[in-house]
Design a protein that fits this description.
Distance between the termini: 38 Å
CATH class of the largest domain: Alpha Beta
Largest sheet: 8 strands, parallel, barrel
Helix content: 25-40%
Shape: elongated
Number of strands: 14
CATH topology of the largest domain: TIM Barrel
Number of helices: 11
Strand order of the largest sheet: 7-8-9-10-11-12-13-14
Radius of gyration: 21 Å
CATH architecture of the largest domain: Alpha-Beta Barrel
Structural class: alpha/beta
Order of helices and strands: EHEEHEEEEHEHEHEHEHEHEHHEH
Strand content: 15-25%
């Protein structure tokens, strides 16, 4: 349930209304005070709340019932777009966020060189995999904790905040101290024990869409994190599994305007995993920006042919620089900045 308040409602009136609501039912009340609108979002069993009594308060403009199971991630509960701080970068708002870096951290020389190159081209966040969930147990699994240390070296040299994927709840403390944003990969989107633990931390979470997840399932995973108290959630569309086999996944560009309509959370697009083909990264990155995404996440490697992971979908630093120039033109056309 959402209670929309009249403009000019003072805090004393809000407190009186909240006291009456909690006397009727043990719901959680989330006040959202915007520039033009103030609402109270009620989460829990609202069946005992008498709408006529609530409407009798002068400060109440109207009452709305929310049918969707996700509440905190719902735009109805939070009309204004959310902007999440990741180190010295912001995700959401008018400025686009460009995240770039290798699929896997391989060496200090590799990650630092790529970081410096993408920074010069305009990236604001560095990505790099330290723990790599692979389909084959024989494939390169990442440098693990050594990879995190190398990412920190790259951050120290370039000033770029870092995002890396977590695999286990047992590593949360380490990620809290080492990275600026914790990524939950597609395979862990419905790892609810992990999501619950991440809901207790004060750190931005980049939540990738699951391999075959519906948009509602994706938002419900975000709800798990937000229900625990951590509302610093960033969504990332990275393609879903369909009957098509030409591309690695089917990049769902339509998810961008859908998320913008349903949720206030910022959304990024990962065209690298979405296609699995480096020559498709540029056109789909531009399409994502044109569709309204808040940024793009691109895999960049200095020597893709020798990459230990996902070289076929990684672009070179020079190619990334060209993509950035084209994205700036698209961003200007849709009223965004890079």
């Amino acid at each position: 349930m959402i209670i929309v308040l009249r403009q000019g409602t003072v805090q004393k009136e809000i407190d009186q209304l909240c006291n009456v609501i909690t006397s009727m039912s043990s719901v959680t009340i989330n006040p959202v005070i915007g520039t033009d609108l103030t609402i109270l979002g009620l989460i829990g069993d609202t069946s005992r709340i008498d709408p006529t009594q609530i409407e009798s308060f002068h400060c109440v403009e109207r009452i709305m019932h929310v049918a969707e199971p996700y509440k905190k991630a719902n735009r109805s509960f939070h009309p204004d777009d959310t902007v999440v701080d990741v180190g010295n970068a912001k995700v959401g708002g008018k400025k686009l966020t460009m995240i770039a870096g290798p699929c896997s951290v391989e060496s200090e020389e590799q990650i630092c060189a790529i970081a410096e190159s993408v920074r010069i081209s305009g990236a604001s966040i560095l990505r790099g995999g330290a723990f790599k969930p692979r389909t084959s147990p024989y494939a390169f699994q990442g440098l693990k904790y050594e990879g995190l240390e190398l990412l920190k070296e790259a951050r120290a040299k370039t000033g770029l905040p870092i995002v890396s994927e977590i695999m286990s709840p047992f590593d949360i403390d380490r990620f809290l101290s080492d990275v600026d944003c914790i990524q939950v990969g597609a395979r862990n989107m419905q790892n609810f024990d992990l999501l619950r633990q991440l809901g207790k931390v004060d750190k931005p979470i980049l939540l990738k869409r699951g391999l075959s997840a519906t948009i509602e399932e994706w938002l419900m995973s975000a709800e798990y994190i937000m229900a625990g108290g951590n509302e610093k959630v960033i969504l990332c569309e990275r393609g879903i599994r369909t009957f098509e086999t030409y591309t690695r996944n089917t990049l769902d560009i339509s998810a961008v305007p859908v998320i913008k309509r349903l949720s206030h959370l910022p959304i990024l697009v990962d065209p690298s995993h979405g296609t699995g083909k480096r020559w498709m990264v540029s056109p789909l990155a531009k399409a994502a920006v044109a569709a309204g995404a808040d940024g793009v996440m691109i895999e960049v490697h200095n020597d893709p042919q020798r990459a230990l992971c996902d070289g076929q979908q990684s672009i070179t630093p020079d190619t990334f620089d060209g993509v950035m120039k084209e994205i700036r033109l698209i961003a200007q056309a849709v009223g965004r900045e890079v």
